Amino acid sequence: MIIDILAALFIVAGSFFMLVASLGVFRMPDLLTRMHATTKSGVLGAGLIMCGVMLFFVDSGVTLKALAVMAFTTLTSPIAAHAIGRAGYFIGVPLWDKTVKDELHGRYDEETHVLRSPEQMQDQQDKP
User: Fold this and answer.
1) What is the pLDDT of residues 45-59, one digit of tens each?
2) Residue 125 burial class via C-beta count within 10 angstroms: exposed 0-12, middle 13-18, buried 19 and up
3) Which of the residues 12, 21, 107, 118 could staple to 42 if both were Cys, CB 3.0 to 4.6 A apart?
4) Sign of the C-alpha dihedral, residues 70, 71, 75, 76?
5) Which residues of 32-41 are buried (b: 16+ CB within 10 A; e: fewer)?
């Protein structure tokens, strides 16, 4: 009985975070903030739902699969968001007009598609 209530609480909390992630897609102003909202809340929501599933189905097979889902989403979601954000930046998706800092500005060469590190930028400036 108490396990069922705890499982339901995990699933409801996970569903809330998934709702927050989906609202972030509609409410955030640009690609980068949308991805931030969806990856953080989405991974937490999926993890909480999987915890609820593990508590409800007290079975080693279900637990193993739920842990695999949690590990997969935790590992792949930030990597995918980084790759999509980087690609969006390089093809020219505009940043929000209130963005304070752009770390990549001036480091990406659109002709050669090379992204220079701060050390490479310094070396290039030091050359006569």
Assistant:
1) 999 999 999 999 989
2) exposed
3) 21
4) negative
5) bebbebbbbb
> Tokens 């739920």 sit at which residue?
66
- To the nearest 10 degrees (0 to 180), the angle between helices 60-91 and 31-56 is 180
Model pLDDT for residues 34-86, shown as the tens digit of each residue:
888 888 888 999 999 999 999 999 899 999 999 999 999 999 998 998 888 88
Instruction: Yes or no: say if 71 and 51 are a contact pair by the CB < 8 Å rule.
Output: no
> Do 52 and 7 contact (CB within 8 A), yes or no?
yes
Whole-Å CA distances, 88 to 32, 33, 94, 101: 9, 12, 8, 17
Q: What is the CA radius of gyration of the chain?
A: 21
- This prediction's pTM: 0.77
Compute the residue count for the chain: 128
The one-letter code for the residue type at 31 is L
